[in-house]
Specification:
Elements lengths: L2 H18 L9 H47 L1 H5 L2 H22 L5 H11 L5 H17 L4 H6 L14 H13 L3 H16 L8 H14 L3 H14 L4 H19 L13 E2 L2 E2 L9 H8 L8 H4 L4 E4 L5 H4 L3 E7 L4 E4 L5 H11 L4 E2 L2 E2 L6 E2 L4 E2 L1 E5 L5 H14 L9 E6 L4 E5 L19 E8 L5 E2 L2 E3 L4 E3 L6 E5 L13 E3 L2 E3 L2 E9 L15
Antiparallel strand pairs: 1-2, 3-4, 4-5, 5-17, 6-10, 7-8, 9-12, 10-11, 11-20, 12-18, 13-17, 13-20, 14-19, 15-16, 15-18
Helix pairs in contact: 4-6, 6-8, 8-9, 9-10, 10-11, 11-12
Family: Belongs to the P4HA family.
Keywords: Dioxygenase, Endoplasmic reticulum, Glycoprotein, Iron, Metal-binding, Oxidoreductase, Signal, TPR repeat, Vitamin C
Main location: endoplasmic reticulum
């Protein structure tokens, strides 16, 4: 019926009703009785409206109270709170997803003040991309440190018990959806299974089992587990018999199974042979050949520190080859590895200097970049997840002071070194295995600098890290753990100028805590006589 026809019909009916029935003239007539019931119906409708409004207000009030408690806790120690990766993920998810749901709820009313404020504030909120990134960071921690979804969901990570937080069914479902949208069925299965487990345990949630089973059954099918896909799909249909996609999928699965049964036993299709390891589907291989070795080292496994090697490592006082500035106050030097030679220096930076460097760096922090091996241009990459900034000596005297100290310790000149790079690794922050020097197939990597290749790396640890965050060398099985105020140093090039490919290293994901480092890369130019060329490897 067209709107104008509705209006004419209603108006006509009202005129007829008003003209033919003067209800007040007779109480006992049926029309008046009808009005009583009509009013009763209106009251019931009004109560339903009130209940709906009260439910909405109750939800908003409950959310506000929960957020008040949570923000009081988080703002009392923001860095400590965010050091727990589950808190970091949930903060990003709340601001990108949950607050939007609250906005939709509030929009049903005329609370213009709140909506205006939220609209203004939301321009500073995380985006969908940020939530995806936060979810992937949790998955990265899950893989690297072999954490099952239950451990992550319950927030049972080392330390930070004060800020322990758990994932809800909705959170786990969100993790699974993120993986699904990325074509990552391995993590889709893990997180949808966790969501279903918590749902089965009776956790209150707005996510239905049907939604979870819909994603889970398809992801399982993608792994070739036809029988389990059918089992999950049947469970879905038992909950919602009208689910068209599930019904269609089940018929398709049954046809596949029938075709399989018709094949000779020695020609079983691959789709029924999923690779299962320790009760779960095997994690697919990716682009990084040394993935297993790298992640094992991050967990402290597979470190090749033998008793024989340990005997070759010593501690000593280091005066920079009798540098006048270090004769009276030499630095404590400790061998971390024998070949290639990696050393750690203690008390390189004071707490005051570290805080000043961080203060200078924070306003300049931006997504860390890598140098394109073909063009030499800096660009972001998925395998490097951190924020960094570059400090010049003109920024503050402390920068010049720290640079001078690194020069005294190494005996190399900072005049041709790169600026001091300060990096912060937050939630799941990492830098996968890489070389600091340019290889023969990328001769133009540092061409713009005009100072030759990176001859050495000086890495300052500006924070302790509660769990994770090691610097590892997959080639020879070394793992070096951050210690605030210390620094590690190694040469990237042999004296011949050839690159030492053993120095391929990585910054492991930070599991719990916040990792701050500063890097100084020394280049060949200006160091020709300070570290003369030769045929030897040291």
């Amino acid at each position: 019926m067209k709107p104008w026809l509705c209006l004419v019909f209603f108006t006509s009916a009202f005129l007829i009703w008003h003209a033919e029935a003067e209800f007040f003239t007779s109480i006992g007539t049926g029309q008046m009785t009808d009005l009583i019931y009509a009013e009763k119906d209106l009251v019931q409708s009004l109560k339903e409206y009130i209940r709906a409004e009260e439910t909405k207000l109750s939800q908003i009030k409950s959310w506000a109270e929960k957020m008040d408690v949570l923000t009081s806790k988080s703002t009392s120690d923001p860095e400590g709170y965010l050091a727990h990766p589950v808190n970091a993920y949930k903060l990003v998810k709340r601001l990108n997803t949950d607050w939007l749901e609250l906005e939709n709820l509030v929009l049903q009313d005329t609370t213009n003040g709140f909506i205006t404020n939220l609209t203004i504030q939301r321009q500073f909120f995380p985006t969908e991309e940020d939530e995806t990134g936060a979810a992937k960071a949790l998955m990265r921690l899950q893989d690297t440190y072999k954490l099952d979804p239950e451990t992550l969901s319950r927030g049972n990570l080392p330390g930070r018990t004060k800020y322990r937080s758990s994932l809800t069914v909705s959170d786990c479902f969100g993790m699974g959806k993120t993986a699904y949208n990325d074509g990552d069925y391995y993590h889709t299965v893990l997180w949808m299974e966790q969501a279903l487990k918590q749902h089965d345990e009776g956790e209150d949630t707005t996510v239905s089992k049907v939604e979870i089973l819909d994603y889970l059954s398809y992801a399982v099918f993608q792994f070739g587990d036809l029988h389990r896909a059918m089992e999950l799909t049947r469970r879905l249909i038992s909950l919602d018999s009208t689910h068209e996609r599930a019904g269609s999928n089940l018929r398709y699965f049954e046809k596949l199974l029938e075709k399989e049964r018709e094949k000779p036993s020695n020609k079983t299709v691959a789709t029924t042979e999923p690779v299962v390891q320790s009760g779960a589907y095997e994690r697919p291989l990716d682009y990084l050949p040394e993935r297993d070795i790298y992640e094992a080292l991050c967990r402290g496994e597979g470190v090749k520190m033998t008793p024989q090697r340990q005997k070759r490592l010593f501690c000593r006082y280091h005066d920079g080859n009798r540098n006048p500035h270090l004769l009276i106050a030499p630095f404590k030097e400790e061998d971390e590895w024998d070949s290639p030679h990696i050393v750690r220096y203690y008390d390189v930076m004071s707490d005051e200097e570290i805080e000043k460097i961080k203060q200078l760096a924070k306003p300049k922090l931006a997504r860390a970049t890598v140098r394109d091996p073909k063009t030499g241009v800096l660009t972001v990459a998925s395998y490097r997840v951190s924020k960094s900034s570059w400090l010049e000596e003109d920024d503050d005297p402390v920068v010049a002071k720290v640079n001078q100290r690194m020069q005294q310790i190494t005996g190399l000149t900072v005049k041709t070194a790169e600026l001091l790079q300060v990096a912060n690794y937050g939630m799941g922050g990492q830098y996968e295995p890489h070389f600091d020097f340019s290889r023969k197939d990328e001769p133009d990597a540092f061409k713009r600098l005009g100072t030759g290749n990176r001859v050495a790396t000086f890495l300052n640890y500006m924070s302790d890290v509660e769990a994770g965050g090691a610097t590892v060398f997959p080639d020879f099985g070394a793992a070096i753990w951050p210690k605030k105020g210390t620094a590690v140093f190694w040469y990237n090039l042999f004296r011949s100028g050839e690159g030492d490919y053993r120095t391929r290293h990585a910054a492991c994901p930070v599991l719990v805590g916040c990792k701050w480092v500063s890097n100084k890369w020394f280049h060949e130019r200006g160091n020709e006589f300070l570290r003369p060329c030769g045929r030897t490897e040291v």
